[in-house]
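WARN retry 2 of 3 for item q-0093 after timeout on previous attempt; input resubmitted unchanged.
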Amino acid sequence: MLTPNTRLRLQDIIGRIADSQPVTLRERIYVQKFADRDASVWSWLRGAQREQRRGEPESDLEHFMAQLDLGEPSDSKGFDPSRDDLGDWFSGAPSFLRRS
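OK item q-0093 returned
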């Protein structure tokens, strides 16, 4: 559980990421530490990365998809079952998504 001060600090940093404002490496590491352990922080960070790449949603559908956290925030290719191993594909995911 996040303290109010921690949540506000994380949201400030994540907001700057979304707005393409400067963020230090120390701040990125700080956010990633929480994103690896907390699904809410991971979702906030993912939404900020999506907004940074695509900008504000232009249509109601894009806004709806952003609220549902749908779509890929990065330019990486999706899972290809003929080429990829599912375990390897999730190796970069937060710990709460990885298989045990």
